[in-house]
Amino acid sequence: MTDLHADAVRALTDWAPDAAGQDALRRDYLAHLAERPDGMWRACLPGHITASALVVDPEGGRVLLTLHPKVGRWLQMGGHCEPGDDTLAAAALREAVEESGIAGLALLAVDGRTAPVKLDRHQVRCTGKDRPENTHLDVQYVALAPAGARELISEESLDLRWFGWDELPADTDRSVRELVAMARGLV
């Protein structure tokens, strides 16, 4: 078991979500990790843990979303864990910085602790068009943008834009809308 695997178990064990559905997902994620020592990595099929972060500008009342090239929808920043990630939170922050181009992001601490705010399980084809879809067990955080932050689009995005809390694109899926609502209530 890697340190990242152990950290993910700790982070999910210590997190106490408010919603019953979230607790059921949390238990499913922990069962996955108990069964799969490789459960953090892209090569683990049919599913693996991923980490993401919704970048928010609390002062501006807005969120930064990326138009994902594979999914074709506006999403929070995120993706696969990598061997250099020491913690699940660090993986989410790394992904947010890489995809937003914003240095100085900081994960939101709730009650003095950095913890996930939401979980989302979804099907995606992340290993190539010739491979079957697999399951992302996404652990979602909130990243706070520093004042005056300027985004810089990366090669991992078709577009990158700020949206007001109540001005999300019409085709934004339910999961992202829920994450935005949760973030808004926390900041």
Descriptive overview:
- By secondary structure, the chain is α+β, with helices and mostly antiparallel strands.
- Helix content is 29%, strand content 28%.
- It has 4 helices and 10 strands.
- The chain has helices at residues 3-14, 20-35, 88-100, 174-186, and strands spanning 47-57, 62-67, 74-75, 77-80, 106-107, 109-110, 113-114, 118-124, 134-144, 159-164.
- A hairpin with a 4-residue loop joins strand 1 (47-57) and strand 2.
- It is globular and about 45 Å long.
SSE ordering: HHEEEEHEEEEEEH
**Residue windows where pLDDT falls under 50 for at least 5 positions:** none
- How many angstroms does the end-to-end distance come to? 35 Å
Q: What is the average of the pLDDT values?
A: 92
The major beta sheet can be summarized as: 8 strands, mixed
Approximately how much helix is present in the residues? 25-40%
What's the β-strand tally? 10
Radius of gyration: 15 Å
Shape descriptor reads globular
Structural class: alpha+beta
Beta-strand content estimate? 25-35%
Q: What count of helical segments does DSSP give?
A: 4
